[in-house]
Write a structure and sequence with these properties.
Helix content is about 65%, strand content about 0%. It contains 5 helices and no strands. The model has no long low-confidence stretch (mean pLDDT about 85).
Length: about 120
């Protein structure tokens, strides 16, 4: 479950990133994306500890792909060249890539295989 803790921390990072990058009041879509994604990521990470919803962390992978796409294609009108991505959008891309990597780690990844567990307790 260590990967869910990392997802939770990345969600917290997204929640504070508007203040770190100094989003302007006029960049309401960036504020909305940061806080909505943070809320969903934190919720998915915490809900995956509940046994009936243990696979909900896979929704984080979908959200991560959306964040990567938004970070790549949501350019402000004054920045036409793709080489000039603003730092807030770069943050979406990087955080999305990290989330995608950790979302694919199963909840029980730090536990030994069942066969090993049974052999050691016989």
């Amino acid at each position: 479950m260590w990967s869910r803790v990392v997802e939770f921390m990345l969600g917290c990072w997204l929640a504070i990133s508007p203040f770190v990058f100094g989003h302007a009041e006029s960049q309401s879509m960036l504020w909305f994306m940061d806080w909505l994604c943070a809320l969903l990521i934190i919720s998915f990470a915490l809900l995956s500890y509940w046994q009936p919803l243990r696979h909900i962390h896979l929704a984080t992978a979908f959200l991560a792909v959306l964040m990567i796409g938004y970070g790549r294609f949501a350019q402000p009108a004054q920045l036409i060249p793709a080489e000039h991505v603003i730092p807030a959008l770069q943050n979406h891309i990087l955080t999305g890539l990290l989330l995608l990597m950790f979302a694919l780690v199963p909840n029980h990844a730090s536990q030994p295989p069942q066969g090993w567990y049974r052999e050691s307790h016989n």
